[in-house]
TrEMBL record:
GO CC entries: cytosol
Single annotated GO MF: oxidoreductase activity
Pfam families, A to Z: FMN_red
UniProt superkingdom: Bacteria
Record-linked Gene3D superfamilies: 3.40.50.360
Protein name listed in UniProt: NAD(P)H-dependent oxidoreductase
InterPro entries in alphabetical order: Flavoprotein-like_sf, FMN_Rdtase-like_dom, NAD(P)H-dep_reductase
Domain called NADPH-dependent FMN reductase-like: residue spans: 6-137
């Protein structure tokens, strides 16, 4: 089961009292149970917060961390039918570290379960040469369904979410492995001339 692939888990909210922590806690535990090593990239981390004002040193720190990673999972809420602005700012601060990496998206929100944020991010990551998994995971009203540790309270819903994660994790690992092999086999950027 475990293959030790190291991925980044990017949090989508910096709001005080964010629900993001609950959904991220569930996602991190699940990904670890499927054998991934998870490096949490939190835009509210004091080291990364200056990325929001395009601080060069903070962006360099972010890029150094991302250079070591083989894929990403974004855990995002939906804000006005899209991803929150601070998540977009963090994404935009980095270029080649996204290239040729798979990106899985876990979303949450009201009745939409954050799916409009997911669809918005597909367009963004297409421009960044990343591969967004077809499979997604979404939670509607997680503030009613998860405790502060990220435990899903209803066992039937917990089973359904874990079943969705089993497919998500399998496909994420497939793309992580396939793209890692492809990066070794040939350069992504065509030679000049
Ligand atoms: C500015 C703002 C816009 C929002 N827009 C939406 C929306 O378009 N669709 C939705 O389902 N929920 C929307 N919500 C509700 C959020 O999904 C919900 O508050 C969620 O908990 C936000 O994530 P966070 O607590 O981790 O910051 C919005 C919330 C805020 C603060």
């Amino acid at each position: 089961m475990a293959n030790g692939k190291r991925i980044g888990l990017v949090l989508g909210s910096i709001r005080e009292g964010r629900i993001n922590d609950r959904v991220a806690a569930w996602t991190i535990a699940q990904l670890r149970s499927h054998g991934f090593q998870v490096d949490v990239i939190d835009p509210a981390d004091p080291d990364l917060l200056p990325v929001q004002v395009h601080d060069a040193a903070a962006i360099a720190r972010l890029r150094d961390r991302m250079a070591e990673l083989e894929g990403y999972v974004i855990v995002t809420p939906e804000y006005n039918h899209a991803e929150p602005g601070w998540l977009k700012t963090l994404i935009d601060a980095v270029t080649s570290e996204w290239w040729t990496r798979p990106v899985g998206i876990v979303s949450y929100g009201g009745v939409s379960g954050g799916l409009r944020a997911t669809e918005s991010l597909r367009a963004v990551f297409g421009e960044l040469h990343a591969v967004v998994l077809r499979d997604t995971i979404s939670f509607y009203s997680p503030w009613r369904k998860m405790d502060e540790q990220g435990t899903i309270l209803d066992p039937v819903e917990a089973d359904a979410a874990e079943a969705a994660m089993a497919i998500f994790a399998h496909r994420l690992r497939w793309w992580v492995d396939a793209l890692a092999d492809a990066r070794i086999a040939r350069p992504y950027t065509p030679e000049a001339g």
